[in-house]
Amino acid sequence: MSATLVVHHLRVSQSESIVWLCEELGLDYKLVCHDRDQQTLLAPDAYKELSPLRTAPVIEDVDTYTPNNDHIRLAESQACIEWICRKHGQGRLLNKPWDPNWKEWLFWWHFTHGSFQPACQMKMIAGALPKDNPSQKIIDSRIDHYLDLIEQRLSKSRFLVGDELTAADIQMIFPLTTQRSFIPFDLSPYPNTLRYLKEIGERPAYQKAFEKAETTLKPMLDANPKSLYSIA
Fold first, then answer.
1. Cα separation, 55 vs 118, whole angstroms
2. End-to-end CA distance of the chain
3. What pLDDT is recorded for position 210?
4. Per-residue model confidence (pLDDT) at position 40
5. Lesser CB count within 10 Å: N end or C end of the chain?
6. Helices (H), 127-190
7. What is the rounded CA–CA span in Å between residue 176 and residue 230?
8. DSSP assigned state of 36
9. Where is the GST N-terminal domain (predicted)?
């Protein structure tokens, strides 16, 4: 039986997290890769037409919970991750209200897209402003604060929530790694975060995801990797 789950991956984007998730769960899925426009660095029109958001990630699947097994197309990283974990992973990587670390998991599950990644995106936009613009200092200060929170958390546990990988980690890794190809920031002051990235990078599923999903991009797990793109 062919896979019903299709992952549309825009190269050098957060949809890498969805590919990694599928590998961690050992799923049968179809991967369709799309390349950025080399002039604009934006998604091609064919990718934008997949979703009203016009951004990555996008997945397609058969909704077996509907009477007619409707075909669905879904965007938004957290929505895609939750769909895949619940429908194909029997709830794996999603903590439950009765789990000991439920409160911590709920915070970190929402932290990446609610706080950390928006700040990183603001830094991308602010990169076009003069260096002495007050907005630059405000955004850098916010990112530094968020990195401090991540570092403190990882000083207490192997992953964001205890000693087992969860969906919160799947969300977190992109802004700490690949997103720095657009907005460089130094992780040298954060040894626990670097330990965390090293351990993630050694996971067979993470390595396999990059082998399948990327052609030239390598996991950007170092303290200060070279930027691939200019935001000036």
1. 15
2. 48
3. 97
4. 84
5. N
6. 134-154, 167-176
7. 17
8. P
9. 2-92
Span 209-232, average pLDDT: 82
Which tokens go with 59? 């997945």
Pick 39 or 69 by higher pLDDT: 69
Q: Which two tokens stand for residue 167?
A: 């969906």
Amino acid at 179: Q
Query: Which residue, chain included where needed, has tokens 């899925």?
Result: 29
- The CATH code of the domain at 102-203 is 1.20.1050.10
Neighbour count for residue 128 (Cβ, 10 Å): 9
CA distance 67 to 189: 54
AA identity, residue 218:
K
Residues 75-111: pLDDT tens digits? 999 999 999 999 999 999 999 999 999 999 999 999 9
- Structure tokens belonging to residue 122: 């603001």
Backbone dihedral region for residue 91 (phi beyond 0: left; psi -120 to 50: alpha; all else: beta): left
